Amino acid sequence: MTRLAAVGGLLLGGAMVAQAAMASETPPASGRTLASAVGAGDTGAALAARLGTARTAGSWIGADGRPVVAVTDEPAARAVRRAGAEAKVVAHSMDELKSATAALRSAPRVAGTAWAVDYRTNRVVVRADRTVSAGDWSRLTAVAGRIGGFVHMERTKGTFTTRLNGAQPILSTGGRCSAGFNVTNGRSDFILTAGHCGPAGSTWFADNQGDRQLGSTVNSDFPGSDFSLVQYAGGRAGEGADVVAVGGGKGVRITGAADPAVGQRVFRSGSTSGLHDGRVTALNATVNYPEGTVTGLIETDVCAEPGDSGGPLFSEGIALGVTSGGNGDCTTGGTTFFQPVTKAMAALGVRLIVSAQNTGGAQGGAPSAAPSAPAGQGAMAPNAASPGSSAPVTGGSEGATLLARLTDTRNVGPGLLVIAGSLIALVATRYIRAEQDRKAYQRYYSATWG
Question: Boundaries of each Peptidase S1A alpha-lytic prodomain domain copy (predicted)?
Fold first, then answer.
């Protein structure tokens, strides 16, 4: 039995090492960038803007990577097809859909609800979590009924909450959040993170003991929006400022910022749950958190957990958003909302810190919040998207001990320990068995020859 247990331990340890190796590996870059969206034809968003909100109802990326534009009449559909995109004729224009969301906002606020326009189904989807009472649900349903049949009501599991409590963790007396992206105004460097993580004046640390002060919040907007700026205590972000951590000592290099498209594959990193991916399901979403209402959010089916707040959302190395909140977890899944980085940077007057090779060496110019890459994925199928190019993570781990690294499930240490223990058990079992056989033979020899 001991030998069988040792063999089992070897197999288990090998599996753990293999799993850790795969988990710590950043998915390879696809070799294409979001710049491939700029080609011979217009993007879906540009087409919708050109035709106007009275004749269109949003755009998204289809399964084949082509832009799809919802239109309300056949002449608009022909214009979309001539531009090389796919057209879908729908009943309700963007003007009607936005009027519906405005009516929902004007109704009495109900914490635990959220809504967004679903471009693909041409509906406004209203969700209510388990904290919403039957009375509030009934009143909200009545409001939706007066707006029209294109407002769809549904209950959802869990509760809509902010994810306070990553790529890299940052800690304060209010809880733990995640660092989003490093930004600069040309004079000082900052961390762009979620606004609900803490008001202006909050002090942040890089360790649980409060020995390594990271910086202080100098600007915060929540509720309404959900972003804040943490100014580095030393004034500078330091080496690797253009890299976001994704776990296991790995990182992804950030090369620009943009607004996402519905249907786009995106990636989120957080100190609690690590790297996860999913799709953008809606834009300009509204969430009624217990603390207040936040509008203009990116809605996704990517999971998140407490402590992931403020963490980065990105795709192909392009910064898209910072984690705001949602429901569910990374075991059962759920909906997660993100503050768009382009809007946050425009409001704060900052720009992303990117490597010199992506800016031509000019990092000290005037801050610009304009997207540095287009949002669509062009002819790239959504499944082909990757987080971006791999890069090592620097800083933030000086205090890590050998024990912490060995017990981190994202590392190979635990698996190697199991393998080593199993080998020792095998050798010990073989030695004990040999000793037992030798003594048994001695007893037999003595009994035979007297």
Answer: 92-147
